[in-house]
Write a structure and sequence with these properties.
The radius of gyration is 34 Å and the shape is elongated. 36% of the residues lie in helices and 19% in strands. Strand 11 and strand 12 form a beta hairpin. It has 24 helices and 24 strands. 36% of the residues are buried. It folds into five domains: 60 residues, Helix Hairpins (Orthogonal Bundle), CATH 1.10.287; 245 residues, DNA ligase/mRNA capping enzyme (D-amino Acid Aminotransferase, Chain A, domain 1, 2-Layer Sandwich), CATH 3.30.470; 76 residues, OB fold (Dihydrolipoamide Acetyltransferase, E2P); 141 residues, Orthogonal Bundle (DNA polymerase, domain 1); 68 residues, BRCT domain (Rossmann fold, 3-Layer(aba) Sandwich), CATH 3.40.50. The protein starts with a helix and ends with a helix. It is α+β, with helices and mostly antiparallel strands and 672 residues long. Helix 12 crosses helix 13 and helix 16 crosses helix 17.
Length: 672
């Protein structure tokens, strides 16, 4: 690249970085991730290192931040509030150590303080005679924004120091630097509350913290659980410690919250070891960190080292591998899970996250796409934490061009092309085709388990499907000995035993067969309820959702799921094959009552642990006396039988006004 071309590229970098600084610090609407910004700044500094004669006073490398917003009054800081140069690897860190050692040989004998690099908003706090009088953002490093009323709402910020009689006496004029941020749990609670109130769902904790602290209405800030950590004494008119480690201790003694993870390291090797440990435990911290700040402990030595541009030589930010980046969303694909749930995923412009190239990321579900208004063509934020599958956080709205396209969920399964099911009020979308290739293994395994086909495990089911012997669960009943002997691991005796088990499975009851079909919501209780009303699968196939909904213990969502399953052509074909194979049980007529029926016409739900009855014993006791037992509480429930550790069913019963009984009261009711 010629000097002229390189210089043009340098100017383009400066313009881009200045624009990103403005979006990040002033608008709180960044369009690139921190990692991408760091790369741009590193490239700028590399060019300027090669051509120091090209450095200009307004270069981003010579500035600590962006211009303060026009919304707030301005505050001039008592000393420059600087940013730090970055190290992205151990080699970068040791290169920094060697550079500053050549400036002053005392560095080789120095100790260091390692502090978590918080992902928040930097502030400067001013105390006079121990009273908090003013707080400002960092701004451009020299002038910040006065956000004093907002800072006063932070419960972790001491309004007077020291906070107790045991605290050390502070200088009469003290300036402290700190970081305002959201704890992870608090940020989740905030978004949950926003969702419940129909408000905006926030994407990143850092941007939300910045926006919260810079609200014109302090009452909005007060409603959001911001936190503060203090980490530096900027200026003071009295005696202050000579080391950074003692400065942190003084701040603690005065009542400031200080990161407990901060560590005194005796040498650079201990710094590296601490970084490696933090890198693996960062996800366990209650707040977001994107690296480690490494500082010369001796503050006098740090001051003597001076600056490079406006970066202090005596400290550096040792960044963790990026876990969150922005990239382009090219398209949205759909996976079909083994339970039939359709899950959307993002098809991305490849990007490196935490040392791994990511091309796809989960989008959770279709409601998430709609709630976040994620569009094809969007620039999106993607996060990868530890071994967790990368996921999309949301779109970068400020980067939209107007060419992005809204996404609509599929109407048919992308694998088998059968219609999909989505019941209003539920998150999941389903493919309910029992023969869908993506679900076949799981469906047959479920069928075999419920029908109790002894000797047929997952491996054999997989062999039968892989070899093309079966294409759905009904095909199990047409498997021959010849089919089995072709499979690895089968001999005459094993084949005969399995065929005998399959033959016995033909005699299973109607509730067993209904449960084995894998219909969503049709577990043991629902299958028994259906078998009481419908004599066989012919009758159940013809049933309407409204008829099934009338059965006590079955709600409208499950009723709709059942009728949807029976309406699918592939599922009807499965039933035909079962009937042809002789797997078509009839329900037994109800037994005539053998004694008094005091519970006739009553419906019970049992919850918690009873003192003398097991759950099954309680169910048998109620049914023997003419009552019905269902799984869920509804307005049709007559009584909820409550034991110890009753859960949400008790809450629902109270809400609906359903009467409750303990075991003793249940027995007493039976004698009336």
């Amino acid at each position: 690249m010629s000097d002229e071309t390189l210089r043009q590229h340098l100017e383009e970098l400066r313009r881009a970085i200045n624009d990103h600084n403005y979006r990040y610090h002033v608008l709180d609407e960044p369009v690139i991730s921190d990692a991408e910004y760091d790369r741009l700044l590193a490239e700028l500094r590399t060019i300027e290192d090669q051509h120091p004669e090209w450095i200009t006073p307004d270069s981003p490398s010579q500035r600590a931040g962006a211009q303060p917003s026009a919304k707030f009054s301005k505050v001039r800081h008592p000393a420059p509030i600087l940013s730090l140069n970055n190290a992205f690897s151990e080699a970068d860190l040791r290169a920094w150590f060697e550079r500053i050692s050549r400036v002053d040989d005392r560095v080789r004998r120095a100790s260091f303080v390692a502090e978590p690099k918080l992902d928040g908003l930097s502030v400067v706090l001013h105390y006079q005679d121990g009273v908090f009088v003013q707080g400002a953002t960092r701004g451009n490093g020299e002038i910040g924004e006065d956000v004093t009323p907002n800072l006063r709402t932070l419960r972790t910020l001491p309004l007077r120091i020291p906070v107790s009689n045991k605290g050390r006496k502070p200088p009469s004029d003290l300036f402290v630097r700190g970081e305002v941020f959201f704890a992870k749990a608090d940020f989740e609670v905030l978004n949950k509350r926003q969702a419940e109130e129909g408000g905006q769902i926030y994407q990143t904790a850092r941007n939300t913290a910045a926006g919260t602290l810079r609200q014109l209405d302090p009452s909005i800030t007060a409603r959001r659980p911001l936190n503060l950590f203090a980490y530096n004494i900027v200026n003071a008119n009295g005696s202050v410690p000579d080391t950074q480690w003692e400065s942190l201790q003084l701040l603690r003694d005065l009542g400031f919250p200080v990161a407990s993870e901060s560590k005194l390291c005796q040498n650079i090797d201990e710094v590296v070891a601490t970084y490696e440990k933090w890198k693996t435990t960062r996800e366990g911290l209650p707040y977001e960190v994107d690296g480690m700040v490494v500082k010369i402990n001796d503050l006098g030595l740090a001051e003597d080292l001076g600056f490079v541009g406006k970066d202090p030589r005596g400290a550096i930010a040792y960044k963790f591998p990026a876990l969150e980046v922005a990239t382009q969303l090219h398209n949205i694909g759909v996976n079909v899970g083994r339970t039939g749930v359709l899950t959307p995923y993002a098809m991305l412009e490849p990007v490196e996250i935490g040392g791994v190239i990511v091309r796809q990321a989960t989008l959770h579900n279709f409601d998430f796409i709609e709630e976040k208004d994620i569009r094809i063509g969007d620039r999106v934020l993607v996060k990868r934490a530890g071994d967790v599958i990368p996921y999309v956080i949301g779109p970068v709205l400020a980067a939209r061009t107007g060419k992005e396209k809204k996404y609509k969920p599929p109407l048919v399964c992308p694998v088998c092309s059968q219609p999909v099911e989505h019941i209003e009020g539920e998150v999941a979308w389903y493919c309910v085709n029992a023969a869908c290739p993506e679900q076949l293994l799981r469906n047959v395994e479920h069928f075999v388990g419920v029908m109790d086909v002894v000797g047929m495990g997952e491996k054999i089911v997989e062999q039968l499907i892989t070899e093309g012997v079966i294409k759905d669960a009904a095909d199990l009943f047409s498997v021959t000995k010849r089919d089995l002997l072709q499979l690895e691991g089968f001999a005459d005796k094993k084949a005969d035993n399995l065929l005998a088990s399959i033959e016995i499975a033909k005699t299973r009851s109607l509730p067993r067969l209904i449960g084995a079909l894998g219909i969503r919501g049709a577990g043991e209780v629902v299958s028994n309820l259906l078998a009481r009303k419908y004599r066989n699968l012919d009758e159940l196939t013809k049933a309407k959702a409204s008829d099934i909904d009338d059965i006590e213990g079955i709600g409208p969502s499950i009723a709709e799921a059942i009728t949807d399953w029976f309406s699918q052509p592939a599922n009807r074909n499965l039933l035909k094959k079962l009937k042809k194979a002789g797997v078509w049980p009839e329900s037994m007529p109800p037994k005539a009552p053998s004694g008094p029926q005091p519970f006739a016409g009553l419906t019970f739900v049992v919850t918690g642990t009873l003192p003398n009855f097991s759950r099954k014993q309680a169910k048998d006791f109620i049914e023997d006396l003419g009552g019905k037992v269902t799984d869920s509480v509804s307005a049709k429930t007559s009584y909820l039988v409550v034991g110890e550790d009753a859960g949400s069913k008790l809450d629902k019963a109270k809400q609906l006004g359903v009467k409750t009984l303990d075991e003793a009261a249940l027995k007493a009711l039976a004698k009336k």
